[in-house]
């Protein structure tokens, strides 16, 4: 009978392209999102700790920042005190860091982005085909730091981590005088959480340096 025909099913939607897997350098990878909170513990004039906790308040990482023009370095340890990553800064640079495994293997190198030297960081992973492998950049309109993996021309980038500014952070600039700041962090599934934490502090150091430079006419 006319009008009684069953309606044709809607056309099947094209499947979304698969997400390009994130490159990792440690075993600190989860296949579900990780929600972290970071705060700062100032232990002395030339040393502080960035403390990363999980959503339930348990300690995940400590990142010790040792300051000094010719001896600046960082050490990331897990909750048991085991060294996960170390980083050493090229003297007098803005953001040239070499990130290594505990055995000394070079895992990544960071630098500022040409034209954005005061605000953003690029990361090269030696084993990766694409250079720069990662980008760390502020999203001022949303008061966030964004990290993503560059997958090459014509391919969508893969989000690695998003960190939302917390205390003592205004317009994307950390309060350099107070040296006490917080972030609310989301690490994406498949991302290297230890690496993301290290990138975040290197980026924060860059902002702090430029905040001090602006305050004292150094920039």
From TrEMBL:
Query: Which Pfam families does this entry report, sorted A to Z?
Result: LOR (PF04525)
Highest taxon listed in the record's lineage? Eukaryota
Q: Which residues cross the membrane?
A: none
Which InterPro entries does the entry link to? LOR (IPR007612), LOR_sf (IPR038595), Tubby-like_C (IPR025659)
Q: Which family does it belong to?
A: Belongs to the LOR family.
Q: What is this protein called?
A: Expressed protein
In which organism is this protein found? Chlorella variabilis
């Amino acid at each position: 009978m006319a009008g009684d025909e069953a309606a044709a099913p809607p056309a099947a939607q094209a499947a979304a392209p698969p997400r390009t897997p994130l490159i990792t350098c440690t075993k600190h990878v989860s296949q579900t999102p990780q929600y972290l909170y970071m705060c700062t513990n100032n232990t002395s004039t030339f040393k502080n700790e960035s403390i990363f906790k999980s959503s339930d308040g348990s300690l995940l990482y400590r990142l010790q920042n040792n300051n000094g023009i010719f001896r600046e370095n960082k050490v990331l340890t897990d909750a048991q005190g085991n060294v996960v990553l170390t980083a050493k800064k090229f003297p007098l640079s803005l953001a040239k860091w070499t990130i290594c495994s505990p055995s000394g293997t070079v895992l990544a190198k960071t630098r500022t982005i040409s034209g954005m030297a005061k605000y953003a960081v690029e990361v090269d992973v030696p084993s990766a085909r694409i250079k720069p492998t990662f980008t760390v950049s502020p999203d001022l309109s949303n008061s966030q730091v964004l990290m993503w993996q560059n997958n090459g021309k014509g391919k969508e980038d893969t989000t690695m981590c998003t960190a939302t500014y917390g205390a003592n952070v205004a317009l994307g600039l950390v309060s350099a005088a107070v040296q006490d700041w917080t972030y609310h962090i989301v690490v994406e599934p498949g991302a290297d959480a230890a690496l993301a934490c290290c990138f975040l502090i290197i980026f924060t150091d860059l902002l702090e340096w430029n905040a001090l430079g602006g305050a004292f006419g150094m920039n």
